protein acetyllysine N-acetyltransferase
Amino acid sequence: MTAIKDAIKIIDAAPKITFLTGAGVSTPSGIPDYRSLQGVYQGIDQPEYLLSHDCLVYEPQKFYQFIKQLYHPEAQPNIIHKKIAALARKKPVWVISQNIDGLHDKAKTPHVVNFHGNLYDVYCCKCNQSIPWEKYLTCDIHENCGGRLRPNIVLYGEGFTTDVVNHATAAVKSADLVVIVGTSFQVAPFNQLLYYRDKHAKIMAINQTPLAIQEPFTMVQCAAEDLFKEINI
């Protein structure tokens, strides 16, 4: 296991970095993760169903009542988001995020792929018009056409757009260092992005629990915010 100071040296030395970020990056901003004891899935039967395309289509009110709990508009970028954004202003840095909270964009990170979409990007399923997320939180029916509103996120049972996949794989291919941050890295196809890295690119994981990755990698077992606060930019 690598110490924080040694991990920072690796990050500083890498010419091009791609970060793969998960829920552990946003928990310091007050956004609950999904599967921990304090996570949004706790005490809910079949939580994945509530975030599925089937639930949206066949039980839209059940979907709507659950999805509203995932909105945290008061949340602000924390030290992890801010330091990654600052790094990206110094050298080529991409972020591919599992998170749907938009905090990397809020931190003004130049190159972000929201792999699973963004809760704050809402549209009408009938007329495809973009709708302010604030209106969505008051009603999930479009007042203009009567269509169902939904956030532009990837639900269980839905596929990924070609654009998202192409941008994500290109970002991984271009990196000299791929840094996995705040994720158990068990959800496909996000965890398959490593297949696209250059054979000479290094892999680092920053997470509170050890990860099981088949490729050689550097494990930094710590809270991500503890590491990023020590990066000088």
Summary: Strands lie at 17-21, 93-97, 112-114, 117-124, 130-131, 149-153, 177-181, 202-207, 218-221. Residues 1-31+76-116+160-233 form a domain with the Rossmann fold fold (CATH 3.40.50.1220).
